[in-house]
Amino acid sequence: MNATVGAAPDLAAAVVALRAGGLVAMPTETVYGLGADARNPLALRKIYALKNRPTDHPLILHLADAAALPEWVVEVPPAAQVLAAHFWPGPLTLVLRRAPGVPDELTGGQDSIAIRVPSHPVAQALLRAFGGGIAAPSANRYGRVSPTCAAHVREEFPEGIAVILEGGDCEVGLESTIISLLGPVPQLLRPGVIGRAEIEAVLGTPVVGVAAASAPRVPGSTAQHYAPRTPLELVPAGGLAEAVARATAEGLRVATLGCPPGCDAATYGRALYADLRRLDARGVDRLLVEEAPATPEWEAVRDRLARAAATFR
After folding, report:
1. Which residues pair with 95 in a beta bridge?
2. Of 97, 136, 181, 276, which alpha carbon lies 20 to 30 A from 61's?
3. Positive or negative torsion for Cα 13, 17, 18, 20
4. What pLDDT does residue 6 have?
């Protein structure tokens, strides 16, 4: 059975669980993570088993600060130093060349490793109390909607987690931006609230996209991901009423999620996963979700919705 920690998180119990090879759920500013000792292969395998996650799909390593990077990577290139200094702690994940001795279970068997430093105070407190790296993918079944509060974690996993640390609703609500620094040109592997333009401004160099076939495997990069159980159909902007009428004529029960005029991407993204979970629980036949604006600040939202709707297409 899961144990839940209230407003004053029992970090000591979480640390004991991690050191014993158990799993804990921790809040971050992006989504809640399912954490294990990143140096313990057996503990890492428990993450894959509980999430039903493919074992070649790497995990993100969470560190308390950038000072620990040399323990996990072959080198810290100048671009990584600049980005870490500017964006960490925060919702940016860097993909670097892994150091010898890093467990294959952490990297999905690749020679690269994905690392970030979360800013959530509970995550920071846990990392510092534990004194090591914590591998923490989102605390949900593989491919499903990520959790943005502790209640979502409890719903997803009635058992299997030693401690669930309470940290309120996630401030960002979408997974981190992922940037690969494996080659001479930075590559955007997953969009997030930190946009391409921000990263380019800090680095003073372009950040390119990358074809899936040549990219390292990273979390959230599969065509179908972040999906509710109810089939989700993306509807063109302004087309919800027509889509509802069409679905109703087909005898379908539907629930809708619009994109109100004037809504900003950060506010929408913060609530997106909670909204999808709420609609998914209604027991309808189809979710009709209005497409988000095709502008840079909405890139992360559009990415998540496209993957959530992949099975419908």
Report:
1. 114, 180
2. 276
3. positive
4. 47
pLDDT number for residue 225: 77
Residue 76 near residue 94, CB atoms below 8 Å: no
Q: Residue 37's beta-bridge partner residues?
A: 134
Contacts of 260 (CB under 8 A, 6+ apart): none
**pLDDT tens digits, 67-101:** 999 999 999 999 999 999 999 999 999 999 999 99
User: Quick check: 33 and 172 in contact, CB under 8 A?
Assistant: no
* Identity at 159, one-letter amino acid code: E
Residue extents of the structural domains in the chain:
4-214, 232-308
Residue 59: HSE in the Cβ half-sphere, 13 Å Cα cutoff: 33
Q: Give bridge partners of residue 92 from the DSSP assignment.
A: 177
Query: Which tens digit of pLDDT belongs to each residue from 154-171?
Result: 999 999 999 999 999 999
Question: Is the pLDDT confidence value at 180 over 50?
Answer: yes
Q: Are 133 and 72 in contact (CB under 8 A)?
A: yes
For the residues of 252-269, what is the DSSP string, one character each?
--EEEE---TT--HHHHH
Helix (H) or strand (E) holding 288: strand 286-290
Q: Helices (DSSP H) in the chain: which residue ranges?
A: 11-19, 41-51, 78-87, 104-107, 121-130, 150-156, 196-203, 240-249, 265-280, 299-308
CA 58 to chain centre: 12
Confirm whether pTM is higher than 0.90: yes
Q: How confident is the model at residue 210 (pLDDT cuts 50, 70, 90)?
A: confident
Q: Which residues of 168-189 are buried (b: 16+ CB within 10 A; e: fewer)?
A: eebbbbbbbbbbbbbeeebbbb
